[in-house]
Amino acid sequence: MSSSTLEVATPQSSAKPNQIKDHRQISKVAVLGAGTMGSRIAAHIANAGLPVVLLDIVPPGTDASAPKQERNKFVLAAMDGLKKSKPAAFYAVESARLITIGNFDDDLALIADCDWIIEVVAENLEIKRALLEKVQQHRRKDSIITSNTSGLPIHKIVEGMPMELRRHWFGTHFFNPPRYMRLLEVVRTPDTDPSDIAAVEHFCDLRLGKAIVHSHDTPNFIANRIGTFSMGNAIRLMQEQGLTIEEVDTLTGSALGWPKTGTFRLGDMVGVDVLAHVATNFSAQAEKIKDERAEVKLAPFIGTMLERKWLGDKTKQGFYKKEGKDAEGRDLRHVLDWQTLDYKPNMRPKFPAIEMAKNVESTHARIAQLLHADVTKDKAAAFYWPLLTELFTYSANRVPEIADNIVEIDQAMKTGFNWELGPFEMFDAAGVKATTEKMRVAGVPISANVEKLLAYAEKHGEANPSWYQDDASVPSGRLFFDPVSGAYKPVVTADGVTSLGVIKKANGVVKKNHGASVIDLGDGVAGIELHSKMNALGDDIVNLITQTLKPTSEIVGNFEAFVITGDSANFSVGANLMQLLLGVQEEEWDEVEMAVRAFQNMTQAIKFCPRPVVVAPYGMCLGGGVEIALHATARQPHSELYMGLVEAGVGLIPGGGGCKEMTIRSVEAGSSIRPDARGEGVGIFEALKKNFETIAMAKVSTSAAEARSMGFLRASDGLTMNRERLLTDAKTKARAIADAGYSAPIVRTDIPAPGESVLATLKLAVWTMREGQYISDHDAKIANWVAYALCGGKVTPGTPVTEQYLLDLEREAFLSLCGEKKTQERIAFTLKTGKPLRN
């Protein structure tokens, strides 16, 4: 298997293998149905390195003697779509080779050696049952078989079928796109064998990175039940209060810690027809739903949209529609006027309450501020009060109907709809007591489960009742109120799932400043947590890491290994550009040079620390964040990793040792291609050229697999599929390296510089690009500096140079570019817009 296809897909974990019998290990999977959902589930299983069988129907009217290609037309089209899909379905497109395709008529025998069969055909009970009758003839008797239905009763699909099938049958509801959406709703039936569920959960947790939520077999399960209620309520309130679609999207976006798409952009992405299908499940199952809004109905204007096939992004027209271009050639998005069904230019609405809330960084604090604003004076507050209080009541009334406890509901909404806080966590943020008191005054219904929480708090003398309480004595660090038992219980997490926040509650902090902290992770391993805004690397982080990891540090003497990571959404967006720009604009060149030297000293401290340092990057790992990772003893990345030395985008080159490390890796790769004591030859050039393009073009990986192929990760680096296991996996790796007997590397003084011949070739390539007007003059200047730093300057090829020499070249190039007006313009533009400027 190539390095780009996730050779090390199985993460290190403290999970106990003997919890699952050998015959329940999942080594091969079949996916029945190659539509959008089925094909993407197959792709993600291939991402984990497993072989997959993907089957679909034969196109209607196709003759039995037709060529295989015609009979496999649907599944072939699905595979082609997977390879081109955006966002990408595969970590690396090479993983597609793990998928074996076929059709239901000719190839069902391929499922015979599959451990897990996933049914993902049309949401039609009879179609599903007919397929299962055929599957019965070919499946291994102990194979697990599940359905990805989004709302049909799981038990109903196999009603009356043999127990041999029913005991291995349950629901596994993935969310689209399966690679990116972490939620997996597991829905058991009374007949389901618990060991089958354990096997699938173990596999999906470790190998697919899923957050497992247990749902009852009720219509729409958990996430779609709560999510559809919330979206339907937002639409109802929009109509009652005379709001516009874009106003509702602003109100139901990032201000609440919900995705910035809001209600209607999300609807376009999911598909208006899909939303309608989920909503009609409420009506179809109304008699079975203990639900104050079982009659959830589509707004009349949405019914008209369905008739006109305005289904969202897939038909290029829904609640929004792209019409025309702006002055810079970007698509203009128009929005539907729901009252007239005409499209109009999309305006960015502004609400005073939202503008004030932007200054509040904490989502918890923002929710309290927005919910308790004066509804008589603020249009946003008038919308938020019924939206959120009805959500709180609705969610509380769903326990134990749709799930055993509130934790399952919160987890489903956070991982299925990407809410930062679940509804019960939002209720806590708003203040349960204060909110409920206002609800009583307003005469609105209050859930019986809320009354149980309030009664418990009163009985135990708790002034501020809450659904969750911190408790460092339990592994998760958290308790939840269970309205069924009327008491608090520990939030249960799987072995290996933890966070720095949980560990800090139990162990405290060894050392900290504004940007970073040192935490005792236990077992002789310390964690260095980055926690500045976006984890931008300023003086505070640089100083703490340097002082912590230097050989004379007391902390180094007290620990045997280190892990650098964080709990945030992104590992690091790179250096603190605001600090840099201020220094440059004030022409404080000595201070700027000192800051660059300090950054280089930090990365060298990481590399030459007497103890092993494992960096666990995730999310965005850009610029200086990559340089931290490059210098570590080892890396344990999360699979979803957007990694790149992007300094060229702000008019600079990597200045913290990034070029130096990529030169060393080029030399190593070149030597393996064509051994040469002096570092000459085609091999060196090929490796260096690739790294030059990566840096000069500011390329960013779209996965850890791609980061490996770009040279940022080594073949020996591990990989974690489940974000919640990243800290444990990194700690396990650091502990293993220490136990193996670690010796810090020796500073290199014998690096064979690629030299002036390679430099000349790279500069010629830059000149050619400029002559062809593919790049600007400033792009060319940056690229030439990149080439200069990577080649070791104008020296004879193979000249032995030191690491410090290469660092000095980087610093020279970095400082020179800082003095360029166009670089300063790029930095200022990025700080203002978050986007790169090509000037």
From TrEMBL:
Gene Ontology MF, one: NAD+ binding
Reactions listed under catalytic activity: a (3S)-3-hydroxyacyl-CoA + NAD(+) = a 3-oxoacyl-CoA + NADH + H(+)
Gene3D superfamilies, sorted: 1.10.1040.50, 2-enoyl-CoA Hydratase, Chain A, domain 1, NAD(P)-binding Rossmann-like Domain
Bias (Polar residues): 1-17
Gene Ontology terms describing biological process: fatty acid metabolic process; lipid catabolic process
Pfam families membership: 3HCDH, 3HCDH_N, ECH_1
Matches recorded under InterPro entries: 3-OHacyl-CoA_DH_NAD-bd, 3HC_DH_C, 6-PGluconate_DH-like_C_sf, ClpP/crotonase-like_dom_sf, Enoyl-CoA_hydra/iso, NAD(P)-bd_dom_sf
Metabolic or biological pathway, per its Swiss-Prot or TrEMBL entry: Lipid metabolism; fatty acid beta-oxidation
Enzyme nomenclature, EC number: 1.1.1.35
Keyword Methyltransferase listed: no
Enzyme class, spelled out: oxidoreductase
3-hydroxyacyl-CoA dehydrogenase C-terminal domain span: 221-321, 405-440
Stored CDD domains: crotonase-like
3-hydroxyacyl-CoA dehydrogenase NAD binding domain span: 28-217
Protein name (record): 3-hydroxyacyl-CoA dehydrogenase
Source organism of the structure: Tunturiibacter gelidiferens
Lineage, highest ranks first: Bacteria, Pseudomonadati, Acidobacteriota, Terriglobia, Terriglobales
